[in-house]
Amino acid sequence: QVQLVESGGGLVQAGDSLRLSCTASGRTFSNWAVGWFRQAPGKEREFVASISRSGGNTASAGSVKGRFTVSRDSTKTTVYLQMNSLKTEDTADYYCAGVFTADGAYTPTLRREYDVWGQGTQVTVSS
């Protein structure tokens, strides 16, 4: 069973940047579409961004457009979420998720589209 591991969370101030990483234990992401979700206390888990297996297509939520960027490295071993201009409302646990796909352009945005989830990393943005 593939396991996903997030890292890079922490406590920052509003306006700061943070980069989250997602790796798959013991394998590459080369045939996977990968997404980022977040869950704030007392709220539903929501979509943040996703990237296709090819890396050529991305999708993002309206609340993070222009501030967050999802990317994957050339070796396809790590997917990143670069978060700039952080706001207090970005405070949440952030999760990466993956799904094996043959579609190079697939950028899933729904929770039910993903098969594997990480344990999450906490991001806290103070004012």
User: How confident overall, as mean pLDDT?
Assistant: 95
The level of helicity is under 10%
Q: H/E order of the elements?
A: EEEEEEEEEEE
Q: Provide the structure class.
A: mainly beta
Radius of gyration: 13 Å
- The quaternary organization reads as single chain
Count of distinct strands: 11
Distance between the termini: 40 Å
Tell me the β content.
over 45%
Shape: globular
Q: Residue ranges: pLDDT <50 for 5 or more in a row?
A: none
Largest sheet properties: 7 strands, mixed
Q: How many helices?
A: 0
Task: Give a written overview of the molecule.
This protein is an all-beta fold. Helices cover 0% and strands 47% of the residues. It contains no helices and 11 strands. It is globular. The model has no long low-confidence stretch (mean pLDDT 95).
Topology (elements, then pairings):
Blueprint: E1 4-7, E2 10-13, E3 18-24, E4 32-39, E5 46-51, E6 58-60, E7 68-72, E8 78-83, E9 92-100, E10 116-117, E11 121-126
Parallel strand pairs: 2-11
Antiparallel strand pairs: 1-3, 3-8, 4-5, 4-9, 5-6, 7-8, 9-10, 9-11
